[in-house]
TrEMBL record:
This is Holliday junction resolvase. InterPro entries: Restrct_endonuc-II-like (IPR011335), tRNA_endonuc-like_dom_sf (IPR011856). The chain crosses the membrane at residues 85-104. Keywords: Membrane, Transmembrane, Transmembrane helix. It comes from the Bacteria.
Length: 133
């Protein structure tokens, strides 16, 4: 397994443990050969969240990392009444920020990446996101 794949898998597992410890029902979707449109489905208080986990090791997030199947699936998720899809972004130093799909999509129309400062500005720290959900 490549180091990047291991980092991603480790983050997904840790992310699920954090959500579970805060009272979410959580399912980590197993990656199959066809690929999955997201990594995690989480639910709490009658709401369900489709979440893709991304590790940023270079102080930014390349917007091209949102794959077409993720974009289309998150659009359909919202269109069928499930709310926004989310990206959980792990920054160097261990901070996790939640960014809604529509923000990633809008930014991708005008730039190729998000800086760490833009992630802080456009995202919500995980602990604040969980309190709202």
């Amino acid at each position: 397994m490549s180091n990047n794949k291991k980092l991603g898998n480790d983050f997904e597992s840790r992310f699920c443990e954090i959500l579970y410890s805060e009272g979410f029902w959580v399912h980590n979707l197993a990656q199959n050969s066809a690929g999955q449109p997201a990594d995690v489905i989480a639910a709490r208080n009658g709401k369900t969240y489709l979440i893709d986990c991304k590790v940023c090791s270079n102080r930014g997030f390349a917007l091209s990392r949102m794959e077409e199947n993720q974009d289309l699936s998150m659009e359909l998720w919202k269109d069928t009444g499930n709310g926004d899809g989310w990206f959980a972004i792990l920054l160097p130093g261990g901070q996790i920020y939640m960014i809604p799909h529509f923000v990633i999509k809008a930014m991708r129309n005008s730039q190729s990446s998000m800086s760490e400062a833009e992630i802080h500005e456009c995202g919500t720290p995980l602990y604040k996101w969980m309190k709202k959900k």
